Amino acid sequence: MGAGHDTVAAELVRRARQRGADAVTADVLDLLPYRLGAGLRHFYRGSVRHFPWAYAALYRLFLRPGTGPRPGDTALARLAGDRLRDLVERTGAEVVVPVFHVGAQMTGHLRARGELPVPSAVLVIDFVVHRQWLHPGNDLNLCLTEDAARQVREGIGAPAAVCGPVVAPEFLAQAQAQAEAETQAQAEAETDAKAAAEGEAEGWRRLFERHAPGRPPVLLSSGAWGVASRLDTTVRLLAGHGFLPVVLCGANERLRRELSGVPGALALGWVTGMPGLLRAARALVDNAAGQTAVQALAAGLPVVGHRPIPGHGADGVRRMAALGLTEAAADGPALLAALRRLTADGPPRRERIAAGRALFRDDPVALALSLAGDGGEPVTSESRGHPVEDRN
């Protein structure tokens, strides 16, 4: 629904083309007729922004991990399935990679019925695998962590592999990206991208020093839509205790204007040079366990979860902390304590950075393309080795 899914899809396309393959992206909501996709996006954005309790209730009822009811995908599959099959046929696609749970439900439904002739490899971009990610019809589930892969296997008994998060190479530490590059040309291109990001970082550092000399800059993320709980309170707390709060307001211009009036704070609108900005900061305060959080981990920036958005955001923030990737701060004093510890050079900061960078593992494009040569046979109980049940 937000920009995170689009960012992941764009990076998958770049990697596929770098391997000499072709790739096409399609927004699953755009495949729905009658502007239903736009309506769903509008409803989700409105509920998260203005009625978070409503989204929290829907999440508890239909999405939260574990057993329980969930909305059926049959109607969506019938409405958008034909368009997806036409797109596969028109482009000659050999594998479909959903990066959004509605897409995962659609491909799983079609594969289970034998109506999608090519394999589907779901890239689960959440740390907590809620029920809508899971459909036994899909051929493979690519997960961020072994913990998430275990959730898939235990949830539906489906194949799951661990690939780690998907970020563009300029976010990664230079030595790590060069080690992962498969060709000299690729290594040189990624080195150039990193050099550009470092140049941007220097610009940000100069801006921070002019704005608040000597204060550690701490990013506060509110996602593409600028959604956060009591963000002004957090900004004032950090500014009053020796930090420079740098707020990422996304596309929410009203939020940016409001926070620009807070003394000692720096409120930013939509930022295109995120790799440089992450390099220039000392920590990230995150509320969603989404793409900004994993980009920060890739860049070597410690992450502290605080006041998460309801539903998958709250679950993801808790799970990341439980895995030792981040810290979770339940209140203001805990947030200040975590930031003082992690923005200062020393073992706690180095250990947290190392844990975050270890998260990045295999290339999901390579794992997805490995399915392309299997003939595209629909998944069956015989080929899978366990029953496939279309539960919708």
Unreliable segments of 5+ consecutive residues: 375-392
Second rung of CATH, namely the architecture of the largest domain = 3-Layer(aba) Sandwich
Total E-strand runs = 9
CATH class of the largest domain: Alpha Beta
Structure description:
- There is one protein chain.
- The chain contains 17 helices and 9 strands.
- The protein has helices at 3-18, 36-50, 52-63, 74-91, 101-112, 146-156, 174-180, 184-211, 231-239, 253-260, 274-280, 291-299, 312-322, 332-343, 347-357, 364-369, 381-384; strands at 121-123, 140-143, 160-162, 217-221, 244-248, 266-268, 283-286, 303-306, 327-329.
- The strands form 2 sheets. Strands 6-5-4-7-8-9 form a 6-stranded parallel sheet, with helices on both faces. A 3-stranded parallel sheet has the order 1-2-3.
- Residues 375-392 have low confidence and may be disordered.
Which tags fit this structure?
about 400 residues; alpha/beta; Rossmann fold; 2 domains; 6-stranded parallel β-sheet; 9 strands
In short:
The protein has 392 residues and is an alpha/beta fold. Helix content is 50%, strand content 9%.
Secondary structure layout plus pairing:
Elements: H1 3-18, H2 36-50, H3 52-63, H4 74-91, H5 101-112, E1 121-123, E2 140-143, H6 146-156, E3 160-162, H7 174-180, H8 184-211, E4 217-221, H9 231-239, E5 244-248, H10 253-260, E6 266-268, H11 274-280, E7 283-286, H12 291-299, E8 303-306, H13 312-322, E9 327-329, H14 332-343, H15 347-357, H16 364-369, H17 381-384
Parallel strand pairs: 1-2, 2-3, 4-5, 4-7, 5-6, 7-8, 8-9
Helix pairs in contact: 2-3, 4-5, 7-8, 8-11, 12-15
